[in-house]
Amino acid sequence: MRYEIDLFGVLLPSLMLWLVITYAIGALLRPLIERSGLYRYVWHRALFDLALYVCLLGGVVYLSSGLLS
């Protein structure tokens, strides 16, 4: 696994790229969750969003582990 990504001569940690991708996926999912009414069943919306972000980040890192090697 590569730990740095070369972006136009700037070395960025690969986790930073995964965090940005996960944020974009989460930003797309939040309105869908809002429209579906799932937030009505959630006790604490901010904690739910954090847990969703962590789960998505785990999925993105797992799926990309084979891509960056």
TrEMBL record:
InterPro entries per record: DUF1656 (IPR012451)
Keyword annotations: Cell membrane, Membrane, Transmembrane, Transmembrane helix
TM region positions: 7-30, 50-68
Name of this chain's protein: DUF1656 domain-containing protein
The species this protein was found in: Tardiphaga robiniae
